[in-house]
Every structure is written in structure tokens, then in C-alpha cells.
């Protein structure tokens, strides 16, 4: 497992907390920026993470902005990406098990550090259930093929 990690200025502090946690747990990751709280454009950072996952450089992605909404919208524009905005552990587990989400988005201004790390841990430890959910994920993949 290799994780693409990114944020805009509104998610920088939480991204840094996630980065420390990933290091402590021994996860392999690439930090695609931003590298400060200086204002930047979230679409650029979200696209870096989404393309890293879609192109196979990384298996999973985590993107943080102020709300998690903007980066989720952008990431889902990239064929092959199934980004899920999660602010609770139930959604984090379900989006992996049912939707095979490969990108997690979070909002620094919406949730605190403790909950965010619980969500990240839940998301990384969950896996796609397949079965009846496989057909639905295949339908999503077919939509990506129509985009391309």
C-alpha cells in the first residue's frame, strides 16, 4: 500500500497530523503538497493526488481541504477515482467496503484531529467486500470509460 497525500492551505495542518500518524504506523506515502498555510488552489493539489492513484503510482489517496468538499469534487473528475468525503468512521468503512473508494477526503475545519485519525485508520484498514457491490463498482467504472 502506498498513499498519495495532499492538501490545500485550509487542510495543511490536518495533513501534517495525518502525515505524522502515517509515519508512526509505518505506511509508505508521498506528500504532494501543499507545504505551508500560504493560500493555494485546491484543484491543483487534488489533481496531483488523484492522478497518482489513477496512474497507479499510489494505491490510495488522502486529500484535505477546509471542508473536504472541493477536493472531493475535483478528484472525482479523474477517471478511475472514487473519492469519498467522510466525517465519521461508519462512512469511512462503508465507502471502502461497498464502493471501493480509493481516495478519502476530509475537512480540517469540520472535524478535529482525533476523529480524523480514527477515520483514516478505519478507511485504511477496511477493504472492498466485492460480491453484490462489485456489479455497482463496475457500473461506476463504465461511466469513467464514457468520460475518456
Structure write-up:
The protein is α/β, with parallel strands linked by helices and 148 residues long. The chain has one domain: Ribose 5-phosphate Isomerase B, Chain: A (3-Layer(aba) Sandwich), CATH 3.40.1400. The protein is built from 6 helices and 5 strands. A 5-stranded parallel β-sheet has the order 2-1-3-5-4, with helices on both faces. Strand 4, helix 4 and strand 5 form a beta-alpha-beta unit. The radius of gyration is 14 Å and the shape is globular.
Short description:
With 148 residues, the chain is an alpha/beta fold. It has helices at 12-25, 42-54, 69-75, 89-99, 113-125, 132-147, and strands at 2-7, 28-31, 60-65, 83-85, 103-107. It starts with a strand and ends with a helix.
* Oligomeric status: single chain
Order of helices and strands: EHEHEHEHEHH
Please state the CA-atom Rg, rounded to the nearest Å: 14 Å
Strand fraction: 15-25%
Shape: globular
Q: Structural class of the helices, strands and pairings?
A: alpha/beta
Number of strands: 5
Produce the secondary structure layout.
Layout: E1 2-7, H1 12-25, E2 28-31, H2 42-54, E3 60-65, H3 69-75, E4 83-85, H4 89-99, E5 103-107, H5 113-125, H6 132-147
Parallel strand pairs: 1-2, 1-3, 3-5, 4-5
Helix pairs in contact: 1-5, 2-3, 4-5
What are the defining features of this structure?
16% strand, 6 helices, alpha/beta, globular, five-stranded parallel beta sheet, Ribose 5-phosphate Isomerase B, Chain: A, 148 residues
Amino acid at each position: 500500500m502506498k498513499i498519495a497525500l495532499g492538501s490545500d492551505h485550509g487542510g495543511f495542518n490536518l495533513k501534517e497530523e495525518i502525515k505524522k500518524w502515517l509515519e508512526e504506523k509505518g505506511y509508505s506515502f508521498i506528500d504532494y503538497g501543499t507545504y505551508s498555510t500560504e493560500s493555494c488552489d485546491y484543484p491543483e493539489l487534488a489533481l496531483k493526488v488523484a492522478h497518482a492513484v489513477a496512474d497507479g503510482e499510489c494505491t490510495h489517496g488522502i486529500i484535505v481541504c477546509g471542508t473536504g468538499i472541493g477536493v472531493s469534487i475535483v478528484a472525482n473528475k479523474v477517471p478511475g477515482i472514487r473519492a469519498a468525503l467522510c466525517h465519521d468512521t461508519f462512512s469511512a468503512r462503508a465507502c471502502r467496503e461497498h464502493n471501493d473508494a480509493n481516495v478519502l477526503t476530509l475537512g480540517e475545519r469540520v472535524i478535529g484531529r482525533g476523529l480524523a485519525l480514527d477515520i483514516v485508520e478505519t478507511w485504511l484498514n477496511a477493504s472492498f467486500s466485492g460480491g453484490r457491490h462489485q456489479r455497482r463498482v463496475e457500473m461506476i467504472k463504465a461511466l469513467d470509460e464514457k468520460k475518456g
